[in-house]
Amino acid sequence: MILDPAASPERALVDVLAQAAENGVTLFQYRDKTSAMREVYRQAAKLRRAAADAGALFLVNDRCDLALAVDADGVHLGQDDLPLSHARSLLGPAKIIGVSTHRASQVEEAMRGGADYLGFGPIFPTGTKPHHEPAVGIEGLRQIRPLTQLPVFAIGGITIDSLEAVIGAGADGVAVISAILHAAHVPDAVRTFMSRFP
Q: Is 100 considered catalytic here?
């Protein structure tokens, strides 16, 4: 689950994390591309503690410095972020590093660089990242699945209605923002998602 205050400013992210963790989510990524760094740090520190209390993994989007500052379990890198080799030298071998990928060549590069998992997509258009890469669709996910043994998380526009097809195409997991943060009741939405996984 991706925790982004811009996606649902009226909800306290620490409460969302606690509710989601209680209902089966085990991996959280904090993403905030707009707030001042001091506020981002405060929020990340609170979320880090909440994730640890819940026994869940906590990753920071983009920022290795922030991941180190709050002792996150790792970082998730986009294609325009710090190179994977530099991130690994900063964070060390024990931290998790995931990489967003959009095509086969990026999947192969992330594997060579020692990524721990891949995000792949966007599978569908998404409103939470308006300037995203072109959607690759279910078929794009199916095509890259044989290229890697790494866990692959489908990203971009995933809903409960598309979940079965995404899993069927080879995703090990999904990254979700709007389908949870915009839900009328977070615990119910999380339980519905979790019930569809094999």
A: yes
Residue 31 annotated in active site: yes
pLDDT in tens, 100-148: 999 999 999 999 999 999 999 999 987 666 666 889 999 999 999 999 9
Give Cα separations from 112 to 31, 115, 124, 155, 170 (angstroms): 26, 8, 27, 21, 21
Out of 8, 88, 95, 100, which one is annotated catalytic? 100
Phi, psi of 77 (to 5 degrees): -105, 140
Which of these is catalytic: 31, 48, 63, 88?
31
Per the CB < 8 A criterion, the answer to whether 41 and 69 are in contact is yes
Instruction: Please name each of the domains of the chain with its CATH number.
Output: 2-195 (3.20.20.70)
Longest dimension (CA), the chain: 42
pLDDT digits (tens, 9 = 90+) for 135-169: 999 999 999 999 999 999 999 999 999 999 999 99
Active site annotation includes 129: yes
Q: Which of 42, 46, 129, 195 is catalytic?
A: 129
